[in-house]
Amino acid sequence: IQRQCALFLASHLEPANCLGIYCFADLHNCSQLKQTALSFIWTHFAAVVHSDEFLTLKANEVEELIQSDEIEVPNEEIIYNCVMAWLKHDQTFRQQYLLTLLQHVRLPFLSARFITDICDTDPLVRSSHKCRDLLDEAKRYHLRPDCRKVMTGTRFTSRRGKDEHLIVAGGFGAHQRPVDIVERWNPRTNEWTSLQSLTKRRRYAAAAAIGKRLYVVGGYDGRQRMNS
Asked: What's the whole-number mean pLDDT along residues 149-170?
């Protein structure tokens, strides 16, 4: 019965109820349902944080979610905004958790303008000396690229997020000669994989991804410009 109930709940996950199902699974030790709900939360995080359920979470539950590398968001501003929204939902009581939660926001990956226009001007953030130190650290990351190598720790590591890859097609090799090599880089594992070669060697080509296909057109084959 428990298994069937878990399957039913898993099949009805949506941004408005996934946090409740996650907490329910954790309370009743339903490990598979908990992991399924957690994966859903990470994948739909930008929508989940706008739900009423998110604002009712406990501080340790918010912390557990936002410290994950697996969150799929287009930018770190979403993480910052959800933390501040949660804090200000009951600011009198929750402001004690400001530093605890802000430490899990990858502040260096906020845009420089967001840091100066939004974070720097927020009275709640400015009220904490240690939080201002975190912002100063993020500013140094933007202003001193030469120092980034010595900036270590989770805050200076981007979230892995979606299972995306970088595809490199064509280009030039030894003696500036065009190549037909196609390689894929996996940022999760930092590994390169060779893919099927191009039909013709080319460099300076254009590429576009449509669906699950990559189209490489134009470029220069070493003798003439290509139009296909």
From this structure: 82
Q: What's the pLDDT score for residue 2?
A: 80
- Give the residue numbers spanning the domain of 116: 72-162
Residues 157 and 77 in one domain: yes
Alpha helices in the chain (DSSP H): 2-11, 18-27, 31-43, 45-48, 52-55, 59-66, 77-89, 91-94, 98-102, 112-114, 123-126, 129-143
pLDDT at 11 over 90: yes
Q: Does the pLDDT at position 89 exceed 70?
A: yes
Helix 77-89 and helix 59-66, axial crossing angle in degrees, nearest 10: 180
Does residue 1 fall inside a structural domain?
Answer: yes
Q: Which amino acid is at 222?
A: G
Same structural domain, 76 and 158: yes
